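Protocol step 6 of 9: fold each sequence in the batch and record its structure tokens directly after the sequence line. For illustration, a two-sequence batch is reproduced in full.

Sequence one:
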Amino acid sequence: MTGQKYWITPKGDLIDISSINIEDHYKYINDTEEGKKLMRLFNVFYPYGGINKDNLYFLLIKGFIMAEKINTTLYVTYGVRTSADNVPVSKKTANTLLEYLLKDTIKEVYFKCCVLDKGITKTLPKMEYAQIFTNLES
């Protein structure tokens, strides 16, 4: 089952890749002109063969967030500074994520926080997850 897929850029822009008929996060980054421009704009290291699940951290450490909404669950993957931290690296992406999270249709969040190529996954009810952002400065 697939849902609405998004990228959030380090500047906080929400890109709805499903609305342009792209159903794969990696295809957008690797194969579209817009995705390639983002890689250059944010100076992302581009490995031979492109970005994939094994080297996604090249994007995440720059502040990108990969998101997908399926039914009432929001699935997000993003980089954090330490394994004890659940807030995204970029405050702008964190603010955009929080704004999107507060939509009425989202009930829970499955999130994966990554420090380089290591990840920690959790699932929380929406409001409990939103509490992570309470100390975030604008």
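Sequence two, same batch, same settings:
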Amino acid sequence: MDIMDLYPERISPEPNSGCWLWTGSTKGDKRMYGRIYRKGQDRYAHHFSYECSHGKIPTGMVVMHKCDVKGCVNPSHLELGTPQKNAKDAIDRGLNNTPGRPPKASPAQIAKIKHHSKTKQPRGFWLSLAKEMNLSPLIVYDVHLGRSWKRV
């Protein structure tokens, strides 16, 4: 059994990337990782997803996103690694304030995303908009869901 079987209402499959985007709580997580409360524990949704499909996370290991989308809970996009490997991968892929990192969204981009959020969009629209704007798909998706940039 995987996380999709348990929480289908909290997951939005993105057909172009194969990501399963967590639409449930991020519960104040500044990095916008999904959070899940189950059996008395508050956990990261991607950790829970990994454990449902692959088993317990060994001590000293972290769950890494092969797709670089923090909100993805697709178990086939998750792998184990050391904290050092995770940090190195983030730097190598431009995910940590390094040259080549996708820029943060401008107010004009946020306004455009919110404008498109007023009407239903076809499958794959948000990913293509992210590519068009040179933004992380998670930024676009979080704005669309109202999880970030609420005041713009």
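Proceed to step 7 once all outputs are recorded. Observation for sequence two: The two ends are 40 Å apart (CA to CA).
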